[in-house]
C-alpha cells in the first residue's frame, strides 16, 4: 500500500481564480482550482487502494479582501472557514502565522468545532496544552497507521501584536517534534510532519539562504530520525524533492499547486521491486490546469455577490488619479500614492519621518473614485502604526538597508538577489517621506546613502528623529534597525481605517508627488 499526502498551503483566502483586485481577471490559481485537482488525484489514488491524507497547511483565513470581509463585516458568514475545508475533505489543518492577525478569540471561534486542526506547539501559557486543536492524530486504513503532527513557526510573536496572542506560548517546533516522533513511531507505521514554516538552508548544499532566526526550521525537522514525510509552507516557495530519503513539498501561494508526497507503507515486504523503486516520491501539481470546482462556485455564489457589492462601493473621492501603472518603477522613483500613505502616517503619529512599502506588484493605487476594492487591494493587512525614535546614525543605517534592495547589472538598476531568493520580499523595501535622500549604486553596500536634508534642515547623525512605520516593520522585520529604536507610541487603529478617515476628511484631495528620492548609477 502507498501513502499519498496531498497538501495546499498559504491560500490566503484566494478561493476563486481571481486576485480580487482585478475583478474580472481570471488567474491561474485559487482554492477552488485546487479542490478540483485534489478531487481527481484522490479518486485515482483511492481506486488504486492507496492511503490518502489531505492537509491544509496554514495561512487560510487572511490575505485577501475576502478574508477582511469575513473578519470585519460578515463575521456571521465566517463559518465557511470550517464548512468548505470539511467539504473538500481535508483530514488535517495547521495554523499559519497569519491565522493570528485577527486575534485569538476570532481564531478560536473558527476552529472550536474543527476536529481536523493539528497544533502541537502553540500552547496555552497556563495549561501548557494546545490552546486549540490537538498535537497530532493517527489515521488508520487496512491495518496501516499514519501519524500526522501539526506545527507552526515559532516566530509569530516577533511579528504579531501582543493583544492578538494573549496567553499563548509558541514552543520550538523542532523540540516538540523530537519529543513526539519517537513516541509516535511506536504507535504508527509512519510519521508525517505538517509544518507552517520553510527552509532557511539550501536543501542540497546546506548553504544558508537567510538569517537563521528560527522562523524557518524545515531543515532541522527534516533531520529528525523517524520522519517519513514533511509538508511545509510559509515562504510561498515551490519546493519538491526527496532528501535523505524523506519527501518534502512546499506548494507556493494562493493554492497555485497541490503538493503530492508518496511513500511505501509496505517497505520490507515482498512488494514487487518496480513498485517500490520509485518511492518515496514528491511532486507539485499546477492547479492552473484544472477548472474551479463547480460545487463551491454555486454554493458560495450569494456570498461572492455580497462580497463584490461591498468591494465595489465608492467610499471616497480624490481630486486626482493616483493609480500605480508599474509598481517596480514606483519603487525606483517614488509615486504620489506612496506619498499619500506616508502623509497619512505622519498625520496620525506626528512623527518627523515616515516609511512605507509597496507590498507587491499588483497594488493598484487609487483612481479618483476610490472603491473599497482598491483600498483593501492596496493594503490587505490589518497593520497598525508605531512611532519609533531613531538616532541620525540609525536612520542612515536603515536607509542603507533599503539601498541594498537595488543592484546594478550592466548599468541597469535591478533587484538584489536577497530580495527575490529564496522568496520575493518587495514588502521589505521602504520609500520615505520627510527627507531628501539619494542612493549611489556605484558604491559598496553600506556606503550608498546620502541624506541631503530632513524637513528642510541639515541632517544630524547625533540628533534623534521619530519615524512612523507599521507594526510589522517596527519589530525589525525586513530592517533590523527599527527593533533597536525606542518605541514612542503604538496606535491601535489599522492603517486602512486611518487612510479612509483621512481621505474622508480631505474630500477631493490632490497629492503632488514630491521628488525627494533619487538613484545614482
From TrEMBL:
<dbReference type="InterPro" id="IPR006179">
    <property type="entry name" value="5_nucleotidase/apyrase"/>
</dbReference>
<feature type="domain" description="Calcineurin-like phosphoesterase">
    <location>
        <begin position="5"/>
        <end position="237"/>
    </location>
</feature>
<dbReference type="GO" id="GO:0009166">
    <property type="term" value="P:nucleotide catabolic process"/>
</dbReference>
<dbReference type="Pfam" id="PF02872">
    <property type="entry name" value="5_nucleotid_C"/>
</dbReference>
<dbReference type="InterPro" id="IPR029052">
    <property type="entry name" value="Metallo-depent_PP-like"/>
</dbReference>
<keyword id="KW-0732">Signal</keyword>
<comment type="similarity">
    <text>Belongs to the 5'-nucleotidase family.</text>
</comment>
<dbReference type="Pfam" id="PF00149">
    <property type="entry name" value="Metallophos"/>
</dbReference>
<dbReference type="InterPro" id="IPR004843">
    <property type="entry name" value="Calcineurin-like_PHP"/>
</dbReference>
<dbReference type="GO" id="GO:0046872">
    <property type="term" value="F:metal ion binding"/>
</dbReference>
<protein>
    <submittedName>
        <fullName>2',3'-cyclic-nucleotide 2'-phosphodiesterase / 3'-nucleotidase</fullName>
    </submittedName>
</protein>
<feature type="domain" description="5'-Nucleotidase C-terminal">
    <location>
        <begin position="329"/>
        <end position="481"/>
    </location>
</feature>
<dbReference type="GO" id="GO:0030288">
    <property type="term" value="C:outer membrane-bounded periplasmic space"/>
</dbReference>
<keyword id="KW-0378">Hydrolase</keyword>
<dbReference type="GO" id="GO:0016788">
    <property type="term" value="F:hydrolase activity, acting on ester bonds"/>
</dbReference>
<dbReference type="InterPro" id="IPR008334">
    <property type="entry name" value="5'-Nucleotdase_C"/>
</dbReference>
<dbReference type="GO" id="GO:0000166">
    <property type="term" value="F:nucleotide binding"/>
</dbReference>
<dbReference type="InterPro" id="IPR006146">
    <property type="entry name" value="5'-Nucleotdase_CS"/>
</dbReference>
<keyword id="KW-0547">Nucleotide-binding</keyword>
<dbReference type="InterPro" id="IPR036907">
    <property type="entry name" value="5'-Nucleotdase_C_sf"/>
</dbReference>
Amino acid at each position: 500500500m502507498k501513502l499519498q499526502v496531498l497538501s495546499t498551503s498559504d491560500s490566503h483566502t484566494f478561493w476563486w481564480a481571481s486576485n480580487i483586485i482585478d475583478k474580472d481577471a481570471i488567474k491561474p490559481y485559487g482554492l477552488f482550482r485546487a479542490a478540483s485537482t485534489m478531487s481527481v488525484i484522490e479518486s485515482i489514488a483511492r481506486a488504486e487502494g492507496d492511503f490518502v491524507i489531505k492537509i491544509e497547511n496554514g495561512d487560510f483565513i487572511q490575505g485577501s479582501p475576502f478574508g477582511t470581509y469575513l473578519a470585519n463585516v460578515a463575521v456571521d458568514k465566517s463559518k465557511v472557514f470550517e464548512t468548505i475545508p470539511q467539504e473538500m475533505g481535508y483530514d488535517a489543518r495547521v495554523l499559519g502565522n497569519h491565522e493570528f492577525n485577527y486575534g485569538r478569540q476570532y481564531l478560536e471561534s473558527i476552529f472550536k468545532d474543527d476536529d481536523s486542526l493539528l497544533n502541537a506547539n502553540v500552547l496555552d501559557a497556563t495549561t501548557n496544552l494546545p490552546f486549540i486543536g490537538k498535537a497530532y492524530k493517527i489515521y488508520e486504513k487496512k491495518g496501516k497507521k499514519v501519524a500526522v503532527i501539526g506545527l507552526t513557526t515559532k516566530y509569530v510573536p516577533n511579528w504579531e501584536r501582543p493583544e492578538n496572542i494573549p496567553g499563548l506560548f509558541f514552543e520550538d517546533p523542532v523540540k516538540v517534534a523530537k519529543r513526539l516522533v519517537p513516541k509516535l513511531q511506536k504507535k504508527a507505521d509512519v510519521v508525517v510532519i505538517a509544518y507552517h514554516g520553510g527552509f532557511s538552508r539550501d536543501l542540497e548544499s546546506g548553504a544558508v539562504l537567510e538569517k537563521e532566526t528560527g522562523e524557518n526550521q524545515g531543515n532541522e525537522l527534516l533531520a529528525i530520525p523517524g520522519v517519513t514525510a514533511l509538508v511545509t509552507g510559509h515562504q510561498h516557495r515551490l519546493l519538491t524533492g526527496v532528501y535523505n530519503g524523506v519527501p518534502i513539498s512546499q506548494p507556493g501561494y494562493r493554492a497555485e499547486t497541490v503538493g503530492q508526497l508518496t511513500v511505501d507503507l509496505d517497505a520490507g515486504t515482498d512488494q514487487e521491486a518496480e513498485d517500490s523503486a520509485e518511492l518515496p516520491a514528491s511532486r507539485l501539481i499546477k492547479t492552473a490546469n484544472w477548472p474551479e470546482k463547480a460545487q463551491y462556485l454555486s454554493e458560495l455564489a450569494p456570498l461572492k455577490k455580497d462580497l463584490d457589492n461591498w468591494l465595489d462601493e465608492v467610499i471616497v473621492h480624490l481630486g486626482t488619479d493616483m493609480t500605480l501603472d508599474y509598481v517596480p518603477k514606483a519603487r525606483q522613483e517614488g509615486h504620489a500614492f506612496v506619498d499619500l500613505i506616508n502623509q497619512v502616517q505622519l498625520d496620525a503619529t506626528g512623527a518627523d519621518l515616515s516609511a512605507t512599502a509597496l507590498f507587491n506588484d499588483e497594488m493598484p493605487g487609487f483612481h479618483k473614485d476610490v472603491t473599497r476594492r482598491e483600498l483593501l487591494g492596496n493594503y490587505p493587512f490589518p497593520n497598525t502604526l508605531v512611532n519609533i525614535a531613531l538616532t541620525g546614525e540609525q536612520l542612515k543605517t536603515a536607509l542603507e538597508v533599503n539601498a541594498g534592495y537595488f543592484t546594478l547589472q550592466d548599468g541597469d538598476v535591478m533587484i538584489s538577489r536577497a530580495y527575490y531568493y529564496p522568496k520575493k520580499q518587495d514588502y521589505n523595501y521602504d520609500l520615505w517621506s520627510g527627507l531628501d535622500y539619494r542612493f549611489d549604486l556605484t558604491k559598496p553596500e553600506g556606503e550608498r546613502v546620502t541624506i541631503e536634508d530632513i524637513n528642510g534642515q541639515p541632517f544630524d547623525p547625533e540628533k534623534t528623529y521619530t519615524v512612523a512605520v507599521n507594526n510589522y516593520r517596527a519589530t525589525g522585520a525586513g530592517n533590523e534597525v527599527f527593533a533597536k529604536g525606542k518605541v514612542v507610541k503604538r496606535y491601535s487603529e489599522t492603517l486602512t481605517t486611518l487612510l479612509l478617515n483621512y481621505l474622508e476628511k480631505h474630500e477631493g484631495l490632490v497629492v503632488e508627488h514630491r521628488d525627494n528620492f533619487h538613484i545614482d548609477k
